[in-house]
Amino acid sequence: MASQATGREQTPQIRLQSLNEKTQSPLFQRRRIAHGDNTHDEDTGQGLPQPDPGTGMSLGNAVCRRCGNGFGLQEQIINSNGEVWHTSCFVCAQCFQPFPEGTFYEFEGRKYCEHDFRVLFAPSCGKCGEFISGRVIKAMNSSWHPQCFICQICGDCMADSGFVKNAGRALCRECNAKEKARGTGKYVCHKCHDLIEVNGHIKFKGEAYHPYHFNCNSCGVELNTEAREKDGELYCLRCHDKMGIPICGACRRPIEERVVHALGKTWHVEHFVCAKCEKPFLGTRHYEKKGLAYCEIHYHQLFGNICFVCNNIINGDVFSAFNKAWCVHHFACSICDRKMSQKTKFFEFDLKPVCKNCYDKFPGELKKRLKKAYDEQNKK
Predict the structure, then answer these.
(1) 259-303 maps to CATH 2.30.330.10
(2) In terms of DSSP H, where are the helices of the chain?
(3) Which CATH architecture has domain 325-378?
(4) Where are the domains positioned within the chain?
(5) Taking the model in full, what pTM does it have?
(6) What is the pLDDT of residues 243-257, one digit of tens each?
(7) E strands, 55-191, where?
(8) CA distance 236 to 217
(9) What is each CA distance from 335 to 310, 339, 371, in whole angstroms?
(10) Which of 324, 327, 329, 376 has the alpha carbon at shortest distance from 350?
(11) 189 in the Ramachandran plot: left (φ > 0), alpha (ψ -120 to 50) or beta?
């Protein structure tokens, strides 16, 4: 059973922060003022802010968030989210190194450099294997980049359209419908993607559709299963038949694609068949007899020659002489049994073929009588 699901997006609860404000924290400014440093800020040129008595912050109780120790009078302080740190203590919780370019990831109250955060927490894409930063698609027990989450049949991206799980594969809805239809012998409508009942479809530009999705390009009537395509447009059967399109000699329906001309008629390729076995010729040789077409095997079976030697129907090439027929491998001299071909010179004796070597051994009187009989036969 195919189950339908939708890829869920999950983004780790992290906070990407910068250390641009790491030195000039309010606490650091208050400490400078408390010790008589009333100089102007070198960067802004503005007076430093005065301490706020309402914060409850004092030099005595300010301690580093990591080591728990206090700060020196002129020591540089890092302020992050209201917490203060020694510069040497403000490091990655995994590798204990300063954050490159002051950028860190915060996860569950701990701060990590980008490399360690990815190794520890960032999901790997189920397709490309790379770490995923930002939007994550959770589906099929894996994580995916949005652009990597694609249908396993057609390759279309499914990050925003949803997917259907089918036999352990992630498929788009259209491909899933086609897979289901394949098992039932039905078509899937290329427009609405619903199953089409048996013999209830029309073909348009190589795809199957419900006919009611279209109207005749000529008269505008809603189409049915008898609709026909011509030059990239759909027509009802009535309008189509008025366009001079050849009609199949078997099914009496218009021929829209390849046409076979035979027996003075036109045929669909698949409808031009042997009158005996009803197999399509599909471009192979056919034989005509009394207005019907036959494949080579059944033509010879029904109307072929009988070999004078083996009395079997001759399939393939026939050697004919003296109103008789021979299989290729049975055509031989009736005296010495030497195999002969159509190019071999032979003579008739008692309505049988005789090779030249045997004929030359005949008595002279016999050869004269044979020649005389042959000449009289030709005169008739």
Answers:
(1) no
(2) 26-34, 114-120, 173-184, 237-241, 296-303, 356-360, 364-379
(3) Ribbon (2.10)
(4) 137-183, 259-303, 325-378
(5) 0.31
(6) 777 889 898 887 878
(7) 77-80, 83-86, 103-107, 110-112, 137-139, 142-144, 163-166, 169-171, 187-188
(8) 8
(9) 17, 11, 19
(10) 324
(11) beta
